[in-house]
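Protocol step 4 of 5: obtain the predicted structure for the target chain.
Materials: sequence only (see below). No template structures provided, no constraints applied. The aim of this step is simply to have a reference model before the mutagenesis design in step 5. Sequence pasted as it appears in the construct record:
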Amino acid sequence: MNRIYLDNAATTAMHEQVLEKMLPYFRSHYGNPSSIYATGRDARKAVEEARRKVANAINATAAEVYFTSGGTESDNWAIKGYATAHANRGKHLISTAIEHHAVLNTLEALEGDGFEVSYVPVDEHGLVNPEDIQKAIRKDTILISVMAANNEIGTIQPIPEIGRVAREHGIAFHTDAVQAVGAIPVDVDSWQVDLLSLSAHKFHGPKGVGALYIRKGLRLNPLIHGGAQERNRRAGTENLAGIVGLGAAIELATAQLEEKAGQIAALRDDLIDGIMSAVPEVRLNGHPTLRLPNNVNVSVKYVEGEALLLRLDLQGIAASSGSACTSGSLDPSHVLLAIGLPHEIAHGSLRLTLSQETTQEEINAVKTELPRIISNLRAMSPLYEQGEDHVFG
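Step 4 output (structure tokens):
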């Protein structure tokens, strides 16, 4: 069976060229970048080259890029590091109801330490209104954190506008850009962000490595204490091969980005059209146009997301659900609830995310299999009567 992988928002296959770049740094060029002898200097040169590649991809300077273990650490460091370093100025933070748990759980931890967080709402498409950010600002607000693009429904947020609000009020602005980097153009200057998180495995790089952009002059407490690595800001021996892989992956992902994004978006739209036209009572979640080029998220009435995933898997199709079935929780996605979906419909959601490796043949196969699977599952549902006209609600 030829398997079809459509869960690229979760992780991507490593690009062959990325692996080739990494391999020498496991054996022949394995030196510690902090050592002063030749092998260490060669390793340091590779780290700094990767740093420049990351900086070029987001329009930063190399001195503003710090390597981490991934997006979760970057989010934690940005939020905790800034909040604790500036707590003397205020303890109020602003975020949204649809952030990744790497942000939400970090904010919750800070709330346990005496900080206050305002969570602004989103509209039915998952879009944040910059005016709501403006209204939430208080005299003691020190940090705003809004994701660049949602990992579940793909909605792209008005980051430049939110950045302008933050800058006008002298408030630091962090964005979780884990889903955005490699998918859409990212520019820390035009976005007016002060902190930006990214992770290599979202754009065909290795797992276990990411980066945090910290605008020059910004004061941030360390998250990890120890040695003097990363210019005394992030301790721990550098993940040399991973950092090299991150640099190679981000360079590949951002080359001809608009052309590649257009190709992926065409496949995405074909898949959306195929599902919406073949299956009754399906809702497209997320913004219809301000959307990541690879994201399809639909709610299918009268079908449980977990059952849908299992049936798709039996047909060799890997996807994910809007419900948190894989975590052992019975609660539906907080993102889908935030955009106004009732629990029963949120539980029947499906996310299909494409990559540069997705083919038209794979999309055609999903357009054939998915309607058949949904029809079979609905036939077993006591709530669904075949042949009756329904209104999605």
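Step 4 remarks: The first strand starts at residue 4 and ends at 5. The CA atoms of residues 199 and 206 lie 9 Å apart.
Proceed to step 5.
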